[in-house]
Write a structure and sequence with these properties.
The chain has 549 residues and is α+β, with helices and mostly antiparallel strands. Helices cover 35% and strands 16% of the residues. The protein has two domains: 9-236 and 367-403, no CATH class; 238-336 and 425-548, Serum Albumin, Chain A, Domain 1 (Orthogonal Bundle), CATH 1.10.246. Helix 3 runs antiparallel to helix 4 (63-77), helix 4 runs parallel beside helix 9 and helix 16 crosses helix 21.
Length: 549
């Protein structure tokens, strides 16, 4: 395998030339929005990023190798350097050990990023270098390769270097130069693949690139310093988990919003959704009301569990779901935010916090799901483009600190060394110990709203991947905005504008404030049927692509 991919620095340096001489990837059309096959599958954002992941699979790489290649290529196809200066939570099913694990992939607030600092500023800015967390994506990709993959950085970077070497944007040659420097550092590991990957990480976080990034930040008003980069580490964590109708659903921890998808499923366990029918008004109403309750808990409690005691075990328990489920009125939409009180085992929190915030844009994020014939699956949600380019490195730093607030005493209040509670939230579903569904969604607070529907479409309604991606989606802004804490739009219901008029009328009669919309978020899925067939799709309405073979 490694010989086939010419896994060396030399291969990376001449990758573009070899591609022209022997255009194995170019001979095939770029992936569309659906695909089926039994060997491997990729669903992600840009078509060329999906092609990069498929190329590695076809040449013998596993799902982790494919995901690394896809994530690196997404830095070019979908926007500015996602996987160098941004963040990427990752869920992995490792078929050898038969376990699901999380790579945290989210950087912390720098040491200078204190509540007092931003309070004097009037809040955490939505743009600019001040709002950059410590970049985490690159180390997460290296950890993914080291822990689960078979290839080196030089191997999985080949498609990305081809894209960068086209020089279509001014920063592309700069990033290509930085990537080649990292590959050169890796080559110093000789034949030891793991050592080479760690040498690449050291070059980025503790070596010459770290020095350049830190100096640029200091000169341009940023808060990241060399010690912030030097102490960064990708944590390997246990996932959160809930059983739902014979399936095991896995999410990252409460430093993401992912647990509210599990809370929603716990509430929906008490309703026969299949009997109600797919996308019927009653079904949409019940799902939306359950999401509202779970989102209220998200806004009130979720934060970095290394800093805050989050009662997530209680919130994911059936007893807590049973307490909260009667709050769902089947005949009337709720117009209130209603967090529960898990610490006192009460359905409602008696005194809610006052919430306020400033408006800010919701942008960035893309998607990545890969699977291989060995039974491995990787689901990742990379982000980070809305930041600033760090000088001549070609690396873009994100703006993820805006997912904190500055409210003293709130679990998600900013503090040095703390991870913001982010929206990025991959989903992995197993049945009888084997992966059956991977879901990644771009779209801020709508990510798990679309994710829940992808899970329900598979488990409750038996939809194929393409059917799921083409079906009408719905959601709400009945929650605190995760970007600069925008106020809730109570009672709101967003729904695809091609929903039947009768459905919209029925939802309005239930009291929902309905707003028809175009593309609602951007999901990518891989579904694996009992025969082992990979059934993959991306939402074509929002620029997702997929392929399998």
């Amino acid at each position: 395998m490694r010989q086939q991919l010419l896994s060396s620095l030399w291969c990376s340096l001449i990758g573009s030339f070899l591609f022209v001489l022997n255009p194995a990837g170019a001979a095939e059309p770029l992936p569309g929005s659906e695909g089926q096959g039994k060997q491997g599958a990729v669903s992600a954002g840009g078509a060329e990023a999906v092609a990069a992941g498929l190329e590695v699979l076809k040449q013998g790489g596993n799902a982790a190798d494919s995901a690394a290649a896809t994530l690196l290529a997404l830095s070019v196809t979908d926007s500015s350097g996602y996987c160098f200066g941004g963040e990427v939570p990752i869920l992995i099913y490792d078929s050898k050990r038969q376990v699901v694990e999380v790579l945290s992939g989210q950087g912390v607030a720098p040491r200078l990023a204190t509540r007092e600092y931003f309070e004097k500023k009037g809040g955490i800015p939505a743009t600019g270098v001040e709002s950059a967390a410590v970049p985490a994506s690159f180390d997460a990709i290296l950890t993914l390769l080291d822990r689960y993959g078979t290839l080196r950085l030089a191997d999985v970077s080949i498609p990305t270097l081809r894209l960068l070497d086209r020089g279509q944007v001014a920063w592309h040659p700069l990033l290509a130069r930085s990537l080649r420097r990292l590959i050169e550092a890796e080559s110093q590991g000789g034949g030891d693949r793991s050592r080479g990957l760690r040498l690449a990480a050291d070059y980025f976080y503790r070596g010459p690139l770290a020095k350049e990034l830190a100096q640029w930040c200091e000169k341009n008003g940023g808060l990241i310093r060399a010690e912030d980069l030097a102490t960064h580490v990708t944590r390997v964590e246990e996932p959160l988990h809930l059983k739902y109708r014979g399936h095991d659903v896995y999410k990252c921890g409460v430093w993401t919003q992912g647990a509210y998808l599990l809370q929603t499923l716990g509430l929906l366990e008490g309703f026969d959704l299949a009997k109600l029918g797919h996308n019927q008004p009653e079904t949409i109403h019940v799902v939306l009301e359950a999401m509202k309750l779970a989102l209220a808990d998200r806004d009130t409690y979720y934060a970095d569990p290394l800093f805050v005691d989050v009662p997530i075990d209680v919130m994911l328990s059936s007893s807590y779901a049973n307490l909260r489920r009667p709050l769902i009125d089947l005949k009337q939409a709720s117009l209130l935010q209603r967090p529960g009180d898990p610490r006192r085992s009460q359905a409602l929190l008696s005194e809610k916090e006052t919430r306020a915030g400033l408006a800010g844009p919701v942008r960035d994020t893309t998607t990545c799901v890969t699977a291989d014939r060995l039974g491995n699956m990787v689901v990742a949600t990379p982000s980070g483009w809305s930041g600033v380019q760090a000088g001549e490195t070609g690396i873009w730093l994100g703006t993820r600190l805006q997912s904190f607030n500055i409210w003293a005493g709130h679990p998600n209040c900013i503090a040095p060394g703390k991870r913001p509670r982010i929206t990025l939230t991959p989903t992995l579903v197993l049945k009888e110990g084997k992966p059956v569904l991977g879901v990644s969604v771009a779209g801020g607070d709508g990510q798990d709203q679309a994710g829940i529907q992808a899970v329900l479409n598979h488990i409750d309604f038996g939809l194929k991947a393409g059917e799921s991606m083409k079906s009408v989606r719905f959601g709400t802004n009945h929650h605190l905005g995760s970007f600069r804490q925008t106020p809730p739009q109570l009672g709101s219901l967003l729904i695809h504008s091609d929903a039947p008029p009768a459905t919209i009328a029925a939802l309005e009669k239930l009291g929902h404030k309905v707003r028809p919309s175009g593309a609602l978020w951007a999901p990518s899925v891989i579904r694996i049927d009992p025969s082992g067939l990979f059934d993959t799709a991306g939402d074509a309405r929002s620029g997702r692509h997929a392929g399998a073979y």
